[in-house]
Amino acid sequence: MIEPKKKQRKVLLLVNLFSAANNDSARIIDGRSSAEEIKSSIAIEVSRMKESIGKVPGLAVILVGQRRDSLAYVRNKIMACHEVGFRFSIAELPESCTEDDVCDALSNYNKNASIHGILVQLPLPQKSLEQHFDEGKILNVLSLEKDVDGFHPLNIGNLAIQGREPLFIPCTAKGCIELLLSSDVEIVGKRAVVIGRSNIVGLPTFLLLQRHHATVSIVHAYSENPEIITREADILVAAAGVPNLVRGSWLKPGAVVLDVGINPIEDPESEHGYRLIGDVCFEEAVRIASAVTPVPGGVGPMTVAMLLLNTLEAAKRALCFT
Q: What start and end residues bound the annotated signal peptide (predicted)?
């Protein structure tokens, strides 16, 4: 039996081989290789910083509960920090904790001079149908200068207002744009559609595509006939969190498709008991799109790379290092 990771590699290999023989097949946008190049340049900067001033960037994560996808994201961030030479700290809080507990952890990291970037792993768990964490209240406690996830209300507000610049751009949105630019995908004047309007991915991606002069629409749970809207997209960003939501029939021939979805599905043959699939039906998309990101190995690695870039920028600013 082929292991899931080997299955994914085999699918990518077959797709790339097929693409070489058929110009009408999708090009696979390899987020892993792009992320590795960025991490290599970050590691060089960290070494230079350490040699020059004896300090390195520090990143802190606040994790509430044990959501399976959140645990996977945090694991990836820890590994990435070690690869580039960052200091890493994590505050793990039980799902039963209070908002004040989360705010206290944030305040402690705000005051810690060795920590230059802080993120609260979102989404926070919902305690019940009636009770949930107030993410806005929590993010307001976060120091703007350490908001490397880019979710502080002032950062999002500045991203939305023409003529203003946020200190940090949300990592997934930034990673999507970097993938498009590094793949020589034209954004200016193109029709872009974002599926999903979350504060974490959908809204920031919408705003950032607008900044790059695309004509942007959002599809959400209340959109009628979403497939009609998506079929007009030259660039489609799928961030709904619904496995295989986007079928081949939703795509405009030749579209560029960025699949942000990271959905765990049960797989007893996998090491962790599950595997990850995207919001886009990959096997159908590669027959219609001109370029598509795989899951895993597409947007996810770039999100982590952008987090490292933001943290390096925060450290340089705090330490007056150029």
A: none
